[in-house]
Amino acid sequence: MSANPIEQLSASYPVAFIQALGRVLQNEGGLSDTAGDEGGETKYGISRRQYPSLNIAALTLPDAAAIYYRDWWIKFNFGALAGTIGAKAFDLSVNMGPRSAIICLQRAMRACGHQILDDGDLGPVTIIAARVIDATALLAAFRSEAAGHYRLLTGSDDAGDPNHRFLTGWLNRAYE
């Protein structure tokens, strides 16, 4: 039996999802309840705000994986994207919301020369474009768009902005 809890889940899910989930868990960590965080009590990135009837403190890793697979990976079709791009879109969606993450991806596609509407829908046009754009260029543009999104959330570089304290972590997430 593997000592890595993520590897223990690998028999139940596609490899691309397990890899993407590993990135999310690395960024989200365990149980937290940070004052001022709109999500409230959060574990593995799953928040009380999103799932008000869920006992967040008792959430297990297998339960979190099932939620992410059903409510994020399948629902928003992240598995239709190539490995690195799909994992990045999934990870960012957990933090900024699926629509915002997909808009960042679509804007990155435009930065790579493809005329894609930034409608926040991961539909066939976006999926096909993601498959034909050079993955290295797309990932670089995607990181840049995500960083821009996070900077806009802070409103300014003013430390008085309530989101400013999250900016460094958000930028690290955008650029990884």
Chart the SSEs and their pairings.
Elements: H1 5-9, H2 15-28, E1 42-43, E2 46-47, H3 61-74, H4 83-96, H5 98-111, H6 124-132, H7 135-154, H8 167-175
Antiparallel strand pairs: 1-2
Helix pairs in contact: 2-4, 4-5, 4-7, 5-7, 7-8
Protein described:
There is one protein chain. By secondary structure, this protein is an all-alpha fold. It has two domains: 1-75, no CATH class; 82-176, Chitosanase, subunit A, domain 1 (Up-down Bundle), CATH 1.20.141. Helices cover 56% and strands 2% of the residues. The chain has eight helices and two strands. It has a two-stranded antiparallel ribbon. Helix 4 (83-96) packs parallel to helix 7 (135-154). It is globular, with a radius of gyration of 16 Å.
Name its key features.
56% helix, two-stranded antiparallel ribbon, mainly alpha, 2 domains, Chitosanase, subunit A, domain 1, 8 helices
How large is the share of residues in beta strands? under 5%
Mean pLDDT: 89
Overall form? globular
**Unreliable spans:** none
Overall structural class, as computed from helix and strand content, comes to mainly alpha
CATH architecture of the largest domain: Up-down Bundle
CATH topology of the largest domain: Chitosanase, subunit A, domain 1
The counted number of beta strands is 2
Order of secondary-structure elements: HHEEHHHHHH
The named CATH superfamily of the largest domain: Chitosanase, subunit A, domain 1
**Count of DSSP H/I helices:** 8
Name of the CATH first level of the largest domain: Mainly Alpha
Report Rg. Answer: 16 Å
Report the major sheet: 2 strands, antiparallel
Main-sheet strand order equals 1-2
Q: How many independent structural domains?
A: 2
**Amino-to-carboxy terminus distance:** 30 Å
Task: Report the helical percentage.
Answer: 55-70%
